[in-house]
Amino acid sequence: MAQEETQPVLTKGSEGLSLPQRQALADIWRILPDARLVGGVVRDLMVGRTVADVDLATPEPPEQVQQKLEAAGIKVVPTGLSHGTVTAVIGAAPYEITTLRRDTETDGRHAVVCWTQDWREDALRRDFTINAMSRDKEGQLHDYFGGQADLLAGHVRFVGQAGLRIEEDALRILRFFRFQARYGQGQPDRDAVKAIADRVGLLARLSVERIWSELQRLLSGPAPAGQLALMAELGVLQALFPQGTTLERFKALIDLMPPADAVLRLAALVQGDVTTLARGLKFSRADEVSLKAFTEQPVPAPDMDDAALRCLLSDTPASILIGRTWLVQADLNRERPQSDEEKAQFADLRHRLATMDTPVFPLAGRDLLAAGLPPGPEVGRTLAHIRHWWQQGGCVASRQACLAYAGLVS
């Protein structure tokens, strides 16, 4: 008789997670019973948010963690052994498991760590009290710094002394605004605000890649306008964008509830040469092209007919044209609040652009050569002339009609 498969025993500690996540945790806790859920997963379970990434900590050293998991048949990726982290891959999903740590050296960017058995000592090196809680397999919450009360009160507060936490890693300046936007209520923590204002210069130590990674999350997250205003008040925004920003335009855009596209929102915020800015922040090529394209002309208008929109689409992707409509609408909204009718007209325009087929010019140089045009510069000039005629006609003329217009067919 075939042996019946045993199902993992689900524990209280995994309540609130998806069934695949609970089953994976049951396997991990069977192997590492002292491990706990840590950080964002604990915080988000407490407020009822869907959890995408499940992170754990354990007092056991990383090599031992890896050996135990692999002995149980679990795939392990040594993602950061020097920092105590291995990743268990269960059901194609990653579960990061990090050994309890304490910092021995910090320089505002990187830390040298050593292992510890002390959960409180590990929690002390985290940024905010709401991120410093842990939950064991029995569902017991371990909260050393009042994170639960802060979460319920909407109080984003650094663990211990705010200044020390920032000096350990200056990126926590930007993280404060992101977490304040998502979890904060009312006035921001006074100690945090003062510590940030006094240490804005530490941002210069950070790599631009880390800065943009954090800014993307802030810009694409909830309620960014208020946090950017606070950043400007404390000098943070000026340190990041010395070429200048336009907070009024950014707020006007956010008030319209645009897509959570960080590059589009950045285009509404910044002034000056966006190409230089994009390269300074080491954007991907795609993001650099998008940022520049969002700020260019032409811009579709609600009163354009389908022929005019097809003409624009023949030169520019719909996503870029739609982005431009958001920015021009923000400029209008900045002058005066738009009526519901005006908002509806822009919404209809974006729907038309998103659903309209992209016109494709039906000719190429080889078609002109095949029709008898001799090779040379005249081929390119003729092709451009025909394409202009095709666009002016609404991008509907066929290949045969285009050749006939050029007198290349009888």
From TrEMBL:
User: Which keywords appear in this protein's UniProt record, sorted alphabetically?
Assistant: Magnesium, Metal-binding, Nucleotide-binding, Nucleotidyltransferase, RNA-binding, Transferase, tRNA processing
Which co-factors does it depend on?
Mg(2+)
Q: Which Gene3D superfamilies match?
A: Beta Polymerase, domain 2, cca-adding enzyme, domain 2
- Record-level GO BP terms: tRNA processing
Q: Does the keyword tRNA processing apply?
A: yes
Ranges of residues in domain Poly A polymerase head? 35-157
A molecular-function term among this protein's GO annotations: tRNA binding
Q: What span is annotated as the signal peptide, if there is one?
A: none
Q: Which residues cross the membrane?
A: none
Where does the tRNA nucleotidyltransferase/poly(A) polymerase RNA and SrmB- binding domain lie? Answer: 189-243
Against InterPro entries, the record matches this protein to: Bact_CCA-adding_enz_type3_sf, NT_sf, PolA_pol_head_dom, PolyA_RNA-bd
Its domain of life?
Answer: Bacteria
The family note in this entry says: Belongs to the tRNA nucleotidyltransferase/poly(A) polymerase family.
Q: Which PANTHER family does the entry link to?
A: CCA TRNA NUCLEOTIDYLTRANSFERASE 1, MITOCHONDRIAL (PTHR46173)
Protein's recorded name = Poly(A) polymerase
